[in-house]
Amino acid sequence: MGSKIENLQEVLQKDPSNFQIRRELSVELLNEGFNEEALANLKYLEKYFPDDADLAYNIGIVSEKMKDFVSAESAYKKAVSLSTQPDFYYNLGEVLVSLESWDEAISAFKEVLKTDPEDGNCYFNLGLCYFHKEELNTALDNFEQAVKYNPKDIFAHFYMGNIYKKNGLTNFAIKCYQKVLEISPDYSWAYFNLASIAYENGNMDEAKSNLLLTIEYNKQDIEAYKLLTKLSIKDNDLESILTILHDRLENYEANGDLYYILAQVYKYMGNKDEYAKHLSLALENSLSLTYSQEIVEKEFKRLRITANIDIVPPPELEEIDNSEEYDENNEEIDDEYEDKE
Asked: For residue 244, is it left (φ>0), alpha (ψ between -120 and 50) or beta?
């Protein structure tokens, strides 16, 4: 701990009833990230000053930092009951968003706007609440207010793009995503949503270009790898996608979905050994496999039998009834994907 904290602690050891020093110590501990120690001191002070709004507010801050959102909500609600400071309502609103209490969060942010009607962050949070309530027009109005007061709010621009896309106004959506990238050129989700628009419109080259940018900036975007693989198979651009997938798996953590789509590429190429090998790897990494494990197990088992491939299955692979019907369509890479929100 820093010397200031140690000095304050030394004073408290000599005079435990010095509330002002304990208050200062609580703030220093909070600022330095010693959350549990800060909370203990704040709770101690609250016993003697139960109607102190600032104490309740700081307890809310510590609880929020500790991800105890229920306790944070309680503390912030106590703070606003004692004092109607805008910061108290704003923090309460953010915790209510974390708890997905959309209506209460809306009420809290509206209280802030009574004092500061040009608070762009409040408008963004209101937009977010209405977006999750699926009141898209009201959400859009608030996101527009957010960018009015904070033109570089990439998240407001991004959500505006999502709303336009949901409403079928893809040209407006494209402009919003492009604005996001103008402000933050490495925002991978904007590239992905641009790719999905291009894909839906049949512009496959543009879709691939944006997917490549997506994974350049975000190696964890597995959905982008899936869609890129599907497009590469359609284009017969197999060597490129093999390089991309192997590079991702060799340089970052293993992923069951990526092994599975690699298996599908090798299946398409007719390379049964690599096909079986990567099905096995997919099953070994089942925690990150979102495809049906049962279907992948059946696919692996049937391949070993029909192709007479000598690959040892993962130890957890259960025995499968060979007489059970197998749906070939399940071997295809899923054509569905979700826009980033």
From this structure: alpha
Give the separation between CA 49 and CA 42, rounded to whole angstroms: 10
Q: Residue 267: helix, strand or coil by DSSP?
A: helix
Check residue 313 and report its DSSP letter: P
Query: Tokens 């192997």 belong to which residue?
Result: 246
Domains of the chain: 186-341 (1.25.40.10)
CA distance 88 to 83: 8
154-166 and 120-132 helices cross at what angle (nearest 10)? 30
- pLDDT score of 37: 93
Contacts 24+ apart (CB under 8 A), 126-130: 127/156, 127/159, 128/97, 128/159, 129/97, 129/102, 129/103, 129/105, 130/102, 130/106
pLDDT bin (cut points 50, 70, 90) of residue 258 is: very high
At residue 150, the 3 state secondary structure works out as coil
In sequence order, what E strands does the chain have? none
Alpha-carbon distances of 23 from 31, 37, 58, 248, rounded to whole Å: 13, 12, 10, 50
pLDDT band at 17 (very low <50, low <70, confident <90, very high): confident
Please state the pTM of the whole predicted model.
Answer: 0.84
CB of 183 closer than 8 Å to CB of 173: no
337, amino acid identity = Y
Quick one: how far is CA 309 from the chain centroid?
40
Average pLDDT over residues 20-28: 89
- Between 61 and 15, the higher pLDDT residue: 61
The distance from CA 9 to its chain's CA centroid, rounded to whole angstroms, is 40
